[in-house]
Amino acid sequence: MHTVLSQKKPLFDAAIDHLHKEFGALRTGRATPALVEDIPVNAYDAIMEIKGLASIQTQDAKTLVIDPWDKGLIRNIEKAIRDAGVGLSPVVDGTVIRIMMPPMTEDNRKAMVKKMKEFLEDARIRCRQVREEARELSLKMEKDKEISEDEKFKLFDEIDKMTKEYTDLIEQAGNNKEDEIMTI
After folding, report:
1. Which of 23, 76, 89, 143 is the most buried (most CB within 10 A)?
2. pTM: predicted TM-score of the whole model, two decimal places
C-alpha cells in the first residue's frame, strides 16, 4: 500500500466510525444506551454527558434504566432527557430513571429513515473529501518529483478503488439500518 493510501485510510475509517455512532443515536423502537448517553446534563457547575454521570442499561427491548452514581443528580438527568428533544419520557423510580420506548409510528419511521439518509450523505461527503486530499497529495508528490506521472495515475486508480470500497460500506450500513428502522 502506498504511503498516501496508508495516511488516508484512518480518515476513511473515521468516517465509517462516525456514521455508526450517528446511527446508534437513531431511535429504532428498541432500547439502546446510545439514545441517551451523549445527552448533556448540567451537573457540578459544568455540562457533562449522561454516560459520565450514570450507568445505562437495557432492562428489556423496550426499557432503558439509568442509575446515577450521585443520586442527587437524578432530577438534572431527568430534565436533560426531557429537554433533549429525542421524544423520550423519563420516569423517576426511586433512585433510578426508567425510560419506556414509545412504539414507532409509520411517520416516525419515515422521519428516522430521512435522518439516516442525511447521515449517509455526510459520510459520503467525508469520503470524497479524503479522496480529494489524497489526490492533491499525489499531485504535490509528482510536482516535487517524488513520484512519476505513471505512478501518480496508478495512485489515482488506487485512491478511487479505496473510495469505492468505503462508499460501498456506507451503502451497506445504510441498507441494514433502514431495514432495522422499518421493521415493526
Report:
1. 23
2. 0.71
Handedness of CA 173, 178, 179, 184 (dihedral sign): positive
Rounded CA-CA distance 46/97 in Å is 21
Crossing angle of helices 3-24 and 106-143, in 10° steps, is: 170
Q: What are residue 36's phi and psi, to 5 degrees?
A: -120, -10
Nearest by Cα to 58 from 34, 92, 23: 34
Residues 6+ apart with CB under 8 A from 177: 23, 26, 116
User: What domains can you pick out in the chain, each with its CATH number?
Assistant: 3-24+105-182 (1.10.132.20), 33-100 (3.30.1360.40)
The rounded distance, in Å, linking the Cα atoms of 6 and 62 is 42
C-alpha closest to that of 101 among 181, 29, 34: 29
Q: Is the pLDDT of residue 48 over 70?
A: yes
Considering only CA atoms, give the Rg of the chain: 22
CA distance 142 to 70: 59
Which three cell numbers mark 38? Answer: 451523549
What span, in angstroms and rounded, lies between the C-alpha atoms of 16 and 20? 6
